[in-house]
Amino acid sequence: MDIQLFWQNALDLWGSLDQHPLLHAGLGLGLLLAIALVLGRVARFVILHAFKLLGRQPALHWLNDLLQNKVFHRLAQMTPSLVVQFGLKLVPELSATSQHFLGNVALAFTILFLVLAISALLDALLDIYARTEHARTRSIKGYVQLAKMVLFVFGAIIIVATLIDRSPLLLLSGLGAMSAVILLVYKDTLLSFVASVQLTSNDMLRVGDWIEMPQVGADGDVVDITLHTVKVQNFDKTIVSIPTWRLMSESFKNWRGMQQSGGRRIKRSLFIDAGGVRFLTDEEEQRLGNVRLLTDYMARKRSELQAWNEAQGPVAALSANRRRMTNIGTFRAYALAYLKSHPDIQPNMTCMVRQMQTTAQGVPLEIYCFTRTTVWADYERIQGDIFDYLLAVMPEFGLGLYQQPSGSDLRAGLLPATAVREQRALSAETAEP
Questions:
Q1: Where are the transmembrane segments (predicted)?
Q2: Any idea of the CA torsion for 179, 180, 185, 186, to the nearest 10 degrees?
Q3: What is the number of structural domains in the chain?
């Protein structure tokens, strides 16, 4: 009896609402909104849990990227607006104008969440692409950002057109008249997009490349390529953000070729004191001929010089008419043989020791070769070991490294003259009566 009485009172109350149309319509809208929110929660729960179960399948693991970027979450958020949009016809006492306006608002929310879902889908596709082999050489982040920018612009136009109940073409025609202003506002974006396309299509820059651009203080690895900027982490762990368009309008050095070749160049000179350059004596030729790295060179050079001197005839008796081996030439041959036998020097790349033009600092002997590794720390170690050894072995050839005199050298040179003056002054004092 109590239940029947309750339902009877409820029906009587609902029937009395016919006398109050605004209250009737308000209660209907409130009930519709409550139902829409409940259905939205249910749809979100069902969709998310269903795709979580599907994402556990190895063949459908890419669904986890869609879940992490909230693609299905955004799609589920469209449910309340869709329920409101199609349920307005069931609300009693609702005028046609109110129904049309509320329908447009619900449609605008539907379009908004659809745009957000497409944006999340683009982010998910970017994450999926980042795990592929192509992502190591070509970045599509700039294209994704441009697509999202276009998506949001057109989405905003459609939402505004829906709210004001006008055709989107009307707003687009107005934007056409503002094209000059749009080009001015988005100048950097357009320049960056064109530069990003050129950098990617010409394979000029990749994530992980070591680039050097002194004019912006960049010297390190590329960590991110976006539509507007390229982020470079310098070797001191600082981050430099370079506008993408500057990489096309200005020059930069990319060390990728060195890294791919498998060898890094050593190009450094030893400045030999020109005062130590001379001919080898017979004893030095005999001693250096026993050096393992010089055995073939000394034998070949002796035969060559002997044949040339014998061809000169009696004039070869004069020292100036004879060809003889020099200590700097022999040291150059030894350094080259040492480099070619070094286990850390790349044998398939250029390797030479060349004498450069003499300067005020001495005679430069340039070491030019490539290491077998491109790792920075190993490269510096190999380079240091090579020059340590060459500096230490140089006196064996009667050569010395040029070094500008320091204060201690000047004092050592002036000490004998000072001692002589002091001795003279002391002698003069003792000679006085």
A1: 22-51, 100-122, 143-163, 169-186
A2: 60
A3: 3
The structure's pTM equals 0.56
* Average pLDDT taken over every residue of the chain: 81
Return the CATH number at 248: 2.30.30.60
Q: Say whether both 215 and 119 belong to one domain.
A: no
DSSP string, 119-183: HHHHHHHHHHHHTSSGGGT---HHHHHHHHHHHHHHHHHHHHHHHTT--HHHHHHHHHHTHHHHH
pLDDT tens-digit readout, 191-209: 777 787 777 766 788 888 8
Write down the pLDDT at residue 419.
Answer: 57
Q: How many residues does the chain have?
A: 433
Identify the domain containing residue 362 by its residue range. Answer: 264-405
244 and 275 part of one domain: no
Domain contains 242:
yes
What are the pLDDT digits (tens) for 279-320? Answer: 998 899 999 989 999 999 999 999 998 888 888 888 777 777
Compute and round to an integer the Cα radius of gyration of the chain: 42
Q: Read off φ and ψ for residue 140, nearest 5 degrees.
A: -110, 15
Domain membership flag for residue 432: no
